[in-house]
Amino acid sequence: MKKKSLILHIGTEKTGTTSIQDFLALNRAQLKQQGILYPESLGQRNHIKLAAYASHKTWQSLSKPLTYGESDHESFSQLLKQKLQEELALQPEGCAIVSNEHLHSRLQDASQINSIKTLLEQFFHPITVLVYFRRQDLMSFSQYSTALKAGFAEAMPFKLAKNPYYYDFFRIYQNWSNAFGRHQIKVRFFAKEHWQNGNLLEDFCLHSGIGPVKTLSVPAWRNEALSFEAELLLKTLNKQASAGLVTLDRASRQKWVNAICQQYPGLPCYPPKQAAIHFYNQFLESNNELEKLLDTGPKPMFNDDFSMYPEEPKMVAWQEKCAWAEQELRQFLKNNSIPNNLCPSP
């Protein structure tokens, strides 16, 4: 079987990957007519099975595990390869696009990335790795919103994990270039000033060989930013759920998170500027090292505009809103028939 060329989109997380994947899945049939395969065997929308293949771990979705633990990983892997081969046989010509942001966040070991390479090289040649990098403070603030939606009661903006690999773009680039070759890594930047016509989908299409976006369907943009009110309500909900005062099963939680986000739109409340600058400065050395390696791209890679952050935290407004959130959450749970044991309003 003739091997297809492949664009392997690895994220990173918080760089519009959900919207890109929605776009690719929505246009799967049209792309197929152009000779571009967006495989279903690796995942219907997001190719999460590829990352699970390399991670050897049980992965939980909202309702069920994706794999069934290390003891079952071999059968999972064999079935994955079989289904991918069968799908490629139905469309032997053209190229393919694979997209999963967990390839960035979950695969931090060189051996895991090499296992991805070994698998994909059985079916594809050449393989180009496409990665988007976003300024670390903005990436972290977006990750904070995701953590709140996922139910983490202790989520905080600019909280650095024990392993800072998630934000270490130089190490990420090195790991993937060591596996696939430096000249097979295409780096883009998550900022409107660097996108084709200021549009992320147009930029992705240009650099993945899809062609003009205007010939394809464009899904509604998924804005994952939380309003100040939604942020406080989710933070309060997570704390109440952690304390056992609110009953929310895993499968239905997303429904109520979506309801809060829809019912409480608005602008986010950014942390103070100095906190953002301090977080970003922790990665200056990594960014500088990566910048030296890149033949193309902006110099410096990221702008120094921190004007979206306030000079000082708004503590009075925060305290007032926290009191409001407890009352508002109680009414929200009642209106949406969510079982809870919160004390009644005084």
Mean pLDDT figure:
89
Discrete helix count: 14
CATH topology assignment of the largest domain: Rossmann fold
Query: What percentage of the residues does DSSP assign to strands (E)?
Result: 5-15%
H/E element order: EHHEHHEHHEHHEHHHHHH
Supply the number of structural domains.
Answer: 2
Biggest sheet layout: 5 strands, parallel
Strand order of the largest sheet: 2-3-1-4-5
Which word captures the global form? globular
- Write down the CATH class of the largest domain: Alpha Beta
| N-to-C span | 72 Å
Helix-residue proportion: 40-55%
Low-confidence spans: pLDDT under 50, at least 5 residues? 342-346
Class computed from helices, strands and strand pairing? alpha/beta
Radius of gyration: 22 Å
Provide structural commentary.
This protein has 346 residues and is of the alpha/beta class. It folds into 2 domains: 4-135 and 165-215, 3-Layer(aba) Sandwich (Rossmann fold), CATH 3.40.50; 228-267 and 314-335, no CATH class. Helices cover 47% and strands 8% of the residues. It is built from 14 helices and 5 strands. It has helices at 17-26, 28-33, 48-55, 73-90, 102-105, 110-120, 136-150, 169-180, 200-208, 228-242, 250-263, 273-281, 284-293, 315-335, and strands at residues 4-9, 36-37, 95-99, 124-133, 185-189. A 5-stranded parallel beta sheet has the order 2-3-1-4-5. The longest helix is centred in the last third of the chain and has 21 residues, at 315-335. The termini are far apart.
